[in-house]
User: Fold this.
Amino acid sequence: MGKLTVVGIGPGDYENMTVRADRALQECQVVVGYHVYVDLVRARYPDKEFLTTPMTREADRCRMALDAARSGKDVAMVCSGDSGVYGMAGLVYQLRGEAVDPEVSVVPGLTAACSGAAVLGAPLTHDFAVISLSDRLTPWEKIEGRLSAAAEADLSIVLYNPASKGRPGHLRRACEILLETLPENRLCGVVRNIGRPGEEGRLLSLGELRGFEADMFCTVFIGNSQTVPIAGKMITPRGYRNV
Amino acid sequence: MGKLTVVGIGPGDYENMTVRADRALQECQVVVGYHVYVDLVRARYPDKEFLTTPMTREADRCRMALDAARSGKDVAMVCSGDSGVYGMAGLVYQLRGEAVDPEVSVVPGLTAACSGAAVLGAPLTHDFAVISLSDRLTPWEKIEGRLSAAAEADLSIVLYNPASKGRPGHLRRACEILLETLPENRLCGVVRNIGRPGEEGRLLSLGELRGFEADMFCTVFIGNSQTVPIAGKMITPRGYRNV
Assistant:
């Protein structure tokens, strides 16, 4: 029986991987993942067996990884960002159930909230909420409720999956909900291609964000009531009695 | 003029540092930080100049780092966890103001939400809020409002700074607020000494958490309505239409 390590590889470049994630990939025999993420690591770990599945086949991917470990191989399942946050670690545990084999361990990685924030400056110094705009597995009403609650509680907000081919209007709808509570000039930021070629960050107001054409490579940040632009960066102070 | 890099070193061990954080520490001449965090990296980068300040002297620490960079040295300012989330990156930008020198860059690191979640299993697969129970810089009423909002929106919640010498009853008070909305049996987890000797995680109910004696080395996780224990791990499914 091999072991299965669920590895968060961070935004995609080697520099933003942890030493532990690198070691897990070096030591495994089989790398399993969504083909885009597997391609991010393939060149650095060439002498591995690679197993990939298309997008949305997450359960198949986890079963493939568990089966490879059961067949006696040490398996690394790669997730972009963190292995937990919208990642596969939970599904692996669910599909393994109450069995103790194969041994599963979780290697955390930089999630886009942290890696994207560093590009913009420091938008998440204080309390924040992470909310995905994907309604593939979650009712949209639930997402709306979370957006409203976070805005009313003056949390900074990070939006994952702000857009995809099947959800072109989600960011606009999210902004309209936020604008019921927050002002048009609330400072926001968008980061695109974090840790990859073409990485870019920009600041804009919540009113401007409403009309922004996000794609699936974007992560969106909405500041709290104290967030300010400083020297082109998006900065949230540490607290309400600052410095 | 040197440059200043604000480095998130993750939970504290080398394994959980990113390649980029390691490189920033290798390449700098001066390491600045709270003495406990500096001690975590001192042995691995011995030929550096080390500048430390005690706890709560964050502004002094940032000024010290900026001054060292202005004097011509390349400086790494170390933060535990991420450099942004409750870290020093924002304060560095605030204190530098609209000046363009010294050059500041932010290297993200694993925050306790991600590194602690990996110890417990996968409690943060879905939307979540990160809330600090420290009221040193934030009014307690604001913290209470955020706890209530997160609970009502069915977000998983990560509590940072659940206790300290000056705040012995904060976790109990936070649980009492959460229990106005959430059931006694809501699955929770506590991780202690993430990435350090004595690392341990345990699952407990929200009712049990109310009486738990947390210390400053603990990070606390409160599940959402779907979170379940599986084979001793704390697992939040990916969505409400799971697998």
